[in-house]
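=== RUN LOG ===
request id: a7f3
mode: sequence -> structure
chains: 1
length: 189
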Amino acid sequence: MTSDDVHAASSEQLALLRDAVRAKARGDDAGSAKVATGDGGSERVAVVWPMLEVPHLDREFEYRIPAELADDVRFGVAVKVRFHGKRITGYVVGVRETPEFTGTLSPLLAVVSPEAVLTEHIWQVAQAVAARMGGTVSDVLRLAIPPRHARAEKALDERMAKASAADQSVPEVAEAENAGPDAASAVPG
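=== RESULT ===
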């Protein structure tokens, strides 16, 4: 064993001890991986890609998913998160049952829209373009995802609701038409 090996092993052990001391000081259980909630349960973790302009922070971060947002958080949804004291937009690029980060996670602040605007394909292409061209994934995503238009989303939701209602009434009419002319005249319309 060389002196470099001894120094590397001792510095690794010191780092592990420091982490354990910090976790104990925070009151964390070093072995627990679930994000604790007030009711003794656990919450899922959103993996968020924040839209930051600094290249050294162009990576994913984990955030705790509050219970009131849990139904809307899924891949591709835009969310608001607190990052370095500012409220910024990010995209959910994954959801985990247990965090990889051992510290305390900040909660998601809000879901911008329940519409998933980032698809798996666009996500993979954005990563590939950023790696190939030496840019940041955030910059590629800014260009790949059109800006949000709340009025357009609302109109789309209304059209989808009308289409859904129309789809539910179609089988009744089709059944009445197949039953013969007497049954069709009995259907209110």
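=== NOTES ===
Residues 28-41, 183-187 have pLDDT under 50 and may be disordered.
The longest helix spans residues 150-179.
=== END ===
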